Amino acid sequence: MSEYLLAEELDAIIADAIATGKTTGLELMERRGAAVVEAVLEHWPEFDRKGRTAIVFCGPGNNGGDGFVIARLLQERGWLVEAYIYGEPSQLPANARVMYEKWRKIGSVGSLLDDFNAQISWRTSDLAVDALFGSGINRAVPELVRVLFNLDDATDIFAEPLMRDSPNFVAPRVVAVDLPSGITPDTGEFYLQPEGGQGAASANMTVTFHRKRRGHRLAVGPVLAGEVIVKDIGL
């Protein structure tokens, strides 16, 4: 099997692991969230202390469930965490809904479309977690253009030392779960918004699981994903 998997190939591996009793969907979601936190602390060891701040963007699918695990684990480490969801919690898949409910016991959830104030939350966060879509994107999301552009801007600011060290530019480091939101997992392309604008975020670091996706090496994937870290989740 190739080092770079198609989305359906990884789906088949996961389905087989669950069907044979090797693991469960909930266990995998917990492992994915823990793997992202582990990668963040390994990559940026200065983050391994209480009082750091994070903003977590959670999508309407299992990638969003991973985001709620990450939010919970960071808060349990003494971080101050804000979580926002795109979509209705009642519409989350079963496993993601479980993780949403576990997070709600210790933290609040805002609506990404209604409550997120980029000028305030953005400038007070050390870390932004893109757990919106990962490999689950199948359309343009014009309603999220501002959020995607903010993630892209923050990535650029941190990647450029002159901007990163300037008091005029304050932005978090960005970590994407699986893939920056908007990138197609098999082709590395992004969906064009109706007005023709770019429909994808970017990240300083992307944490993916088991093996890389083809989208990590094709088209704009390598540019937007930043450094790609592969974590073992026991498949």
Please give the structural blueprint.
Layout (H helix, E strand, L loop, with lengths): L3 E2 L1 H13 L5 H19 L9 E6 L3 H15 L3 E6 L8 H11 L4 E3 L6 H4 L5 E5 L13 H15 L1 H4 L8 E5 L27 E5 L2 E2 L7 H5 L1 E5 L4
Parallel strand pairs: 1-8, 2-3, 2-5, 3-4, 5-6, 6-7, 7-9
Walk me through this protein's architecture.
- The protein is an alpha/beta fold and 235 residues long.
- It has a single domain, classed as YjeF N-terminal domain (Rossmann fold), CATH 3.40.50.
- It is 37% helix and 17% strand.
- The chain has eight helices and nine strands.
- The chain has helices spanning 7-19, 25-43, 62-76, 94-104, 118-121, 145-159, 161-164, 221-225; strands at residues 4-5, 53-58, 80-85, 109-111, 127-131, 173-177, 205-209, 212-213, 227-231.
- Helix 2 crosses helix 4 and helix 3 (62-76) runs parallel beside helix 4 (94-104).
Number of domains: 1
Determine the strand fraction and express it as a percent band: 15-25%
Main-sheet strand order equals 4-3-2-5-6-7-9
The CATH topology assignment is Rossmann fold
CATH superfamily: YjeF N-terminal domain
Number of helices: 8
The geometry reads as globular
Q: What is the CATH domain class?
A: Alpha Beta
Order of helices and strands: EHHEHEHEHEHHEEEHE
